Amino acid sequence: MKESSRQRLEALREAAIKEETEYVELLAAEKHQVEALKNMQHRNKSLSMLDEILEDVRRAADRLEEEIGEHAFDDNKAVKGVNFEAVLRVEDEEASSKQNMTRRDAQGDLGLSMLIDSQNNQYVLTKPRDSTMPRADHHLIKDIVTIGMLSLPCGWLCTAIGLPTMFGYVICGVLLGPSGLNSIKSIVQVETLGEFGVFFTLFLVGLEFSPEKLRKVWKISLQGPCYMTLLMIAFGLLWGHFLRIGPTQSVFISACLSLSSTPLVSRFLVGSARGDKEGDLDYSTVLLGMLVAQDVQLGLLVAVMPTMLQAGASTSSSALLELLRVLLLAGQTLFSLAAVLLLCLVLKTYLVGPYYRKLHAEGKGNKEILVLGISAFVFLMLTVTELLDVSMELGCFLAGALISSQGHAVTEEITAYMEPVRDFLAIIFFASIGLHVFPTFVVYELAVLAFLTLSVVAMKFLLAALVLSLILPKSSQYIKWIVSAGLAQVSEFSFVLGSRARRAGVISREVYLLILSVTTLSLLLAPVLWRAAILKCVPRPERRSSL
């Protein structure tokens, strides 16, 4: 009992000391608060007129920041499914040496330092807390400058050895990308900027592809890609059965490989020859029409892709339901396409003509107004097609086709102004393709990749030739080899579709790398096949302009 009493007394003594310490701290805090209040009152009394104005400005700035501030953490705390994760913050060495770290920490300024999550994804600041202060992503600026500087010698080298400059831009991306020097920091931003190269490329393609030409080959343009895609899927299912690959994965891979690159082929067709016989179809019109139809198929594939991915994981009892959902999405996409065509008819009848004449009148003394007006029209069309769940690329093409309906003189004028914009953005686009080329993986699996690439290119070439021999008129059968050569490569959009399928778990990492490598090698092989087809099938007087 004596020991127990002593322990209780000791505990009470410690508690009393603790309470006394807290009481002293409270008194000190209260005293400090009173002194601060007195100082604040004294300072408020001594404020001059200028100080009062500055104080009003400060309160107005605080109010502005509260109005424009987006408290993402507070807003998302109650959102279902939001996960909070610790990240690693990596400071830029140059920024650390130039700025005072203590001052930055005191102000809570994150700057443009890099954040890395648990999956090794890297992030930079997109919207600062203080939106009133201008900022710039110096990583992106350096990346664009580096791509522009290195693209010049790479393009010159390819021109010197007789290759298209596009190869030089792809090589530039390889050298600067993860498989080379790994000096590109803002990969996502560079690829996003490169997408504008695709937009303006397809716009200029639409300028050369007038609605009159589209009406002339619309049956071939619709039938050819559909037959080719169905045949590719049939062969894919056959090979998938032998290799024990699931039907969903086989259909997805076959659909990806059936698409061809519109931007690449449009570069081949710059200055190409037209029909050499009166009444014959020219290969450029047929080829562009089929590529546009494939762009429509791309929009359809993107639309049904979520349901396709779910179908791969569904049970046999729900297979019929998933099939009905796919058919419903396909019907919605066809309805959207009909709405887009109706809108184009209305725009051509009532808007395009007056709009261009107004731009032309304003652009006589101010050319940038004309360029800006045409760019705004392109962005309007791609926005409309995106809202209607159709690919943005198709909207850019339709914008060019609508402008071309105003006549040949209008087409030449717009082409002269928009080609420099397209050329610069196309450099970034082809360099962004090089970022996904992994030479080490190609070297390790060279035999397998060479066999797969040649098999895919040969299969697409033969299927295209077979389909065209059935749907082309007899007088234009000679162009089937040129059109088949233009369709033999794989579209760069396989990168996007493959990445989505990999994130969804439909394809493995190995299959994803194989798709990337086969797509890249087929794009590199495309100019060789195109030149061989031109030399073999185009008459000599027209061959020079086509090459």
Task: State the main characteristics.
single chain, three-stranded antiparallel beta sheet, 1% strand, 547 residues, Na+/H+ antiporter like fold, mainly alpha
What does the secondary structure layout of this molecule look like, with pairings?
Layout: H1 2-45, H2 49-68, H3 72-76, E1 88-90, H4 93-98, H5 101-107, E2 114-116, E3 122-123, H6 138-160, H7 165-176, H8 187-208, H9 211-243, H10 247-258, H11 262-268, H12 283-313, H13 319-350, H14 352-362, H15 367-387, H16 392-404, H17 408-434, H18 439-444, H19 446-471, H20 480-487, H21 494-504, H22 509-537, H23 540-546
Antiparallel strand pairs: 1-2, 2-3
What does this structure look like?
- The protein has 547 residues and is mainly alpha-helical.
- It has a domain at 187-276 and 283-546: Up-down Bundle (Na+/H+ antiporter like fold).
- It is 76% helix and 1% strand.
- The chain contains 23 helices and 3 strands.
- A 3-stranded antiparallel beta sheet has the order 1-2-3, with no helix packed on it.
- Helix 7 runs parallel beside helix 17, helix 14 packs antiparallel against helix 15 and helix 19 (446-471) crosses helix 22.
- The chain is globular and about 115 Å long.
